[in-house]
Every structure is written in C-alpha cells, then in structure tokens.
Amino acid sequence: MLLTVAHTLAGLVGAFGVFLGVNAFRTPRAALGFGIPGTPVDDATFQAWLHVKAVRDIASGVLILILVAGATPDLLGWCMLAAAGIPVGDALIVLRSKGTRAAAFGIHGATAAAMAAVSALLFLA
C-alpha cells in the first residue's frame, strides 16, 4: 500500500513537471507565477530563456515518469531526492532576485519538501 501511494505521488510530481514545461511553451505569462518580480514575459529574449526552463521541466518530469515505470523504489527515491535540488535552487533564485519569501518558500520550498517527503516514502516502502 505504501509503495502504491509513493509511486502515485512520484508520478504526480513527474506529470506536474511535464505540465509546467508544456505550459511555459504555450503560455509565457505563466512565468509570472515563478516569483521573480518584473518578469518581462513579452520580451523575445526572455521567452527564449523560458523555453530553456521549459525543456528542463519536461525532461525532468519524463525522467521521473520513466523511473516510476521501471526503477526500484530506492533508485526512484534517490533520484527524487536529487531532483528536489531543482526547486531549492529555484527558491534561492527567487530570493536573490528580490522576489517574495512567500513565492520562494510557498511555491519552490513546498515543492522541494514534497519531493523529499515522497523520497522518504519510497525509502520506507
């Protein structure tokens, strides 16, 4: 039962990564939710960088989904824990860019904590 819950949650994390990436391609204004103030979403150069982030999000999500489908719980757990470093880095970027603490911790910090919790569930399963 615990393994099913952990796999389901890991799959949701992977699917959400894919969603974020696809959404960034479709709707550049979604970048406003990242937490960096003054984000120039209509600027072509910014949109190019946003596409770099979108590719990263899609690839990370697909990687997690592949691991959900075929990896051992321990390997998936370690990979999820390593991938939790991405939202930690994102939170630091938001803080360094004078974004709000609410965005840094409420969006990115919460994501990192959720990924670490899923990792813990996988290690216990």
The rounded distance between the terminal residues' Cα atoms is 8 Å
How many helices in DSSP terms? 5
**Low-pLDDT segments:** none
- Morphology: globular
* Percentage beta strand: under 5%
Mean pLDDT: 95
Number of strands: 0
Indicate the structural class.
mainly alpha
What topology does this entry show?
Blueprint: H1 2-26, H2 44-70, H3 73-83, H4 85-96, H5 101-124
Give an overview in words.
With 125 residues, the chain is mainly alpha-helical. 79% of the residues lie in helices and 0% in strands. It contains five helices and no strands. It has helices at residues 2-26, 44-70, 73-83, 85-96, 101-124. Helix 1 (2-26) runs antiparallel to helix 2 (44-70), helix 2 (44-70) runs antiparallel to helix 3 (73-83) and helix 3 (73-83) runs antiparallel to helix 5. The protein starts with a helix and ends with a helix. The mean pLDDT is 95. The chain crosses the membrane at residues 102-124.
Keywords:
globular; mainly alpha; 125 residues; 79% helix
Summarize the structure.
By secondary structure, the protein is mainly α. The chain is 79% helix and 0% strand. The chain crosses the membrane at residues 102-124.
